[in-house]
Amino acid sequence: MISFKHVEKYYGSFHALKDINLTIERGEVVVAIGPSGSGKSTMLRCINALEEITTGELLVDGVDIHDKKTNLNEVRKNLGMVFQHFNLYPNMTVLENVTIAPIKVLKEDKETATKKAEKLLEKVGMLHKKDEYPTQLSGGQQQRIAIARSLAMEPDVMLFDEPTSALDPEMVGEVLDVMKSLAKDSGMTMIVVTHEMGFAREVADRVIFMADGQILEDRESESFFDHPKDERAKQFLSKIINH
Ligand SMILES: Nc1ncnc2c1ncn2[C@@H]1O[C@H](COP(=O)(O)OP(=O)(O)OP(=O)(O)O)[C@@H](O)[C@H]1O
């Protein structure tokens, strides 16, 4: 469903992604880990063309998204993205934040969009806040709403870019719990960039370890955590675990 073939990415003269080859199948939960600056976010952002690739090929459901002729809006409808910062609309209620895109983009009528939004808000434990405004809510609550907002577009794939790293520690768990249930109950294809190793170990089917713009490991999660092969992956894990 997502396929990188020999993808290279430069920012000016800086080589951010080096020969990335990666295939992600429908329903897989893939977690990308690695040191800061290793290219994880860049890789994720290339998938919905928030970043352009320099060379190589990147297919999403068979569509070459970096082909100038591709209608990116169509492709992006199927790719939900949750960022570190939640970017909710501050002047809209929680419910309006979740219904706006389905009404405007998917042309759903208000009643259908509202029913769907309420179900999703219930799923992320935020239905009781539907008439409040984002600024009245905690970071963890806002991030759960951001997840509901993405899901309202009924994407095939959810991309998460360090969704818990801007949160106070006591709020991380509630967001990870929502993501866990999404991974386990919905069969959603998910690609998650995170520093949360417990989450990766528990939820990921596969782990990708990146360093210096390269994928150094791409393996089933359990085997990766039990026996990392790459020296840098070993060091990375031992540093994180000893912290
Ligand atoms: N717009 C940009 N212009 C120039 N360099 C960039 C840009 N975005 C990212 N980079 C550089 O590319 C490298 C990879 O960045 P990226 O954000 O993908 O790393 P990351 O692994 O996600 O790191 P972190 O865990 O800190 O978010 C970094 O060295 C970063 O400074």
What would you say this structure looks like, in words?
Belongs to the ABC transporter superfamily. One of its GO terms (molecular function) is ATP binding. Helix content is 39%, strand content 25%. It is α/β, with parallel strands linked by helices. The chain has a single domain, classed as 3-Layer(aba) Sandwich (Rossmann fold), CATH 3.40.50. A 6-stranded mixed sheet has the order 6-7-8-3-9-10, sandwiched between helices. Helix 3 packs across helix 4 (110-123), helix 4 crosses helix 5 and helix 5 (139-151) runs parallel beside helix 6. The longest helix is centred in the C-terminal third of the chain and has 17 residues, at 169-185.
What keyword list fits this structure?
ATP-binding, 9 helices, four-stranded antiparallel sheet, about 40% helix, binds adenosine-5'-triphosphate, AAA+_ATPase, MetN_ABC_transporter-like, alpha/beta, ABC_transporter-like_ATP-bd, nucleotide-binding, Rossmann fold
Task: Summarize the SSE layout with pairings.
Layout: E1 2-11, E2 14-24, E3 29-33, H1 40-47, E4 55-60, E5 63-64, H2 72-77, E6 79-82, H3 94-104, H4 110-123, H5 139-151, E7 157-161, H6 169-185, E8 189-193, H7 197-203, E9 206-211, E10 214-220, H8 221-226, H9 231-242
Parallel strand pairs: 3-8, 3-9, 6-7, 7-8
Antiparallel strand pairs: 1-2, 1-4, 4-5, 9-10
Helix pairs in contact: 3-4, 3-5, 4-5, 5-6
Question: Helicity level, as a percent range?
Answer: 25-40%
What fold name stands as the CATH topology? Answer: Rossmann fold
Mean pLDDT: 94
Main sheet: strands, sense, barrel: 6 strands, mixed
What is the name of the CATH superfamily? P-loop containing nucleotide triphosphate hydrolases
Total of DSSP H or I helical runs spanning 4+ residues: 9
Strand content: 25-35%
User: Between the first and last Cα atoms, what is the distance in angstroms?
Assistant: 36 Å
> Order of helices and strands, N to C?
EEEHEEHEHHHEHEHEEHH
**What would you call the shape?**
globular
Q: Class, according to the CATH hierarchy?
A: Alpha Beta
Give unreliable regions as ranges.
none
Q: Trace the largest sheet across and list its strands.
A: 6-7-8-3-9-10
Whole-number tally of structural domains: 1
Structure classification = alpha/beta
Ligands bound to this protein structure: adenosine-5'-triphosphate
CATH architecture heading:
3-Layer(aba) Sandwich
The total strand number stands at 10
